[in-house]
Specification:
The chain is α/β, with parallel strands linked by helices. About 40% of the residues lie in helices and about 20% in strands.
């Protein structure tokens, strides 16, 4: 295909032709708020599944409300936030919860709900580029652009709500305990857990949506587990532990402030977003060399049932989370979506974990390893 014949987001006929030629369309052209729905429309009408990296929560809610039913009728899957946010945490949680309840029942288990009481997810970085990593080198330009895009959105008030993406009819998460947004997991097994970078409010709505979809499929009431996640920044003991707790608290405060900004009047938010954009890296730019390669990370979920049974799942990977690893992650999600015989019963707006599935899953793609 010549460059001149590439489809554009404003050309419905060329997008339609693209969707008719493939089983799954990958969209990495963010921010997505102003562009994604044209392509999703073409995919649903053309019978093609769709996957992107969007973390723009208000957009995801609109896509669910607009396309879930029509995608079900078409027998296709729409999967968003399928990169570092939120696939590793989503899939590790799904598999850990399935292992906690054991065999029988739904092959994907209950997710973080029902018989599951508690699911802490820890993220650790065993190797990072020598000499440290600046904020611009650790967070992808695309992710930050998407975060800022939400400030411009009239429906930004749903940002920070863990129940923002629940299926219609699933009810709301109990925001007094299990569904409450948590900026960092506090301490887990003697380790200080700081808030997830770049923001802590992206993964929880996906994890809760996964569990709510599973509950609805099995006819169960949706009762969310206590879901917590954080970045492991070290032990809790001694003076060093106090310092780590203080740093985690400071970072959590900054993230809470960012969420509170979405409650400001729209005109104020748009002015703030415009000012922040002046300092963001340009689209298409990012780290190179060792800053892309010299990473090793682990995402581990530990699910505990109300009866005390425990299940653990660990995803290990290499490469920059927002660039190298995300590229491998979205490809794995898309490849899983092509296995229509495995997931024919599940269509509509699904999550990355449900697109892959938990039953008998062994994930080894490029630099990712699920154990």
């Amino acid at each position: 295909m010549s460059r001149s014949s590439w489809p554009t987001v404003d050309d419905g006929s060329s997008l339609g032709a693209l969707a008719l030629r493939t089983a799954v369309v990958l969209n990495l052209a963010g921010p997505y708020t102003s562009k994604a729905q044209n392509l999703i429309t073409a995919c649903v009408e053309g019978g093609s599944s769709y996957v992107d990296l969007s973390g723009e929560i208000p957009l995801l809610r609109r896509v669910i409300d607009r396309f879930d039913e029509s995608a079900r009728r078409a027998g296709v899957q729409i999967v968003q936030m399928a990169g570092w946010e939120a696939m590793p945490a989503d899939l590790a949680t799904l598999v850990a919860c399935k292992r906690a309840v054991g065999g029988g029942g739904d092959p994907d288990g209950p997710g973080a709900a029902g018989p599951i009481a508690d699911v802490p997810v820890s993220i650790s970085f065993e190797r990072m580029p020598e000499g440290g990593v600046s904020f611009k080198e650790s967070v992808s330009a695309g992710t930050m652009a998407s975060v800022i895009e939400m400030l411009d959105d009239a429906e930004a008030g749903m940002v920070g709500r863990p129940d923002a993406l629940l299926p219609t009819g699933a009810g709301k998460a109990d925001t007094s305990r299990p569904g409450a947004m948590r900026f960092g997991a506090g301490t887990v097994d003697g380790r200080v857990m700081g808030p997830v970078v770049p923001v802590a409010f992206l993964n929880p709505p996906i994890i809760h949506r996964t569990a709510a979809i599973l509950a609805m499929e099995s006819g169960r009431a949706y009762t969310p587990a206590l879901y917590r996640e954080g970045v492991d920044i070290g032990g809790t003991s001694g003076v060093a532990g106090l310092g780590r707790r203080a740093r985690a608290a400071t970072k959590s405060g900054v993230q809470r402030l960012a969420v509170e900004m979405t409650r400001l009047p729209l005109s104020v938010r748009r002015a703030v977003a415009g000012g922040i954009r002046k300092f963001l890296p340009e689209a298409g730019t990012g780290p190179s060399g060792s800053y892309l390669r010299d990473w090793a990370w682990t995402v581990q979920a530990r699910a505990t049932c109300h009866d005390g049974a425990v299940g653990v799942a660990t995803i290990q990977g290499t490469g920059h989370p927002g660039y190298t690893a995300t590229a491998a992650i979205i490809v794995e999600v898309a490849l899983s979506m092509t296995k229509r015989d495995d997931h024919a019963k599940r269509s509509g707006c699904v999550t990355p974990a449900l697109a892959i599935g938990a039953a008998g899953k062994t994930l080894r793609v490029q630099s990712l390893d699920l154990r």
